[in-house]
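User: Structure please.
Assistant: Input sequence and predicted structure:
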Amino acid sequence: MKIQNNPSQVTGADAQRVDRLDIKNSKSKDKALGADSLLAKEKSDAARVDLSQRAQEMKKIKELAMKEPDVDMDKVAKFQKLIDEGKYKVNTKDVADKMVDEFLLSTDYTD
């Protein structure tokens, strides 16, 4: 093995040896720090995590998706009872009108 003064010129098997030495030295330093300071080091490392804007948005979306929806159980029970008794009638004309209105509002006619 050729000894070089400039560590940036280390290549091949020598580079692997240097990497292994760095890892061993790092582990030795961590042991020397002790449990309390190692824990503090890990906490400070964890505190430095920066999320991208997209990751932050995805986190918010996931939290909203996991949140329980607001449901008026009295209203649900009322309509369930009407349906079970055959008294709930759907006005198909109103439903069709609403569907057409929503389609027209969501369609872009500027093409």
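The chain has a mean pLDDT of 75.
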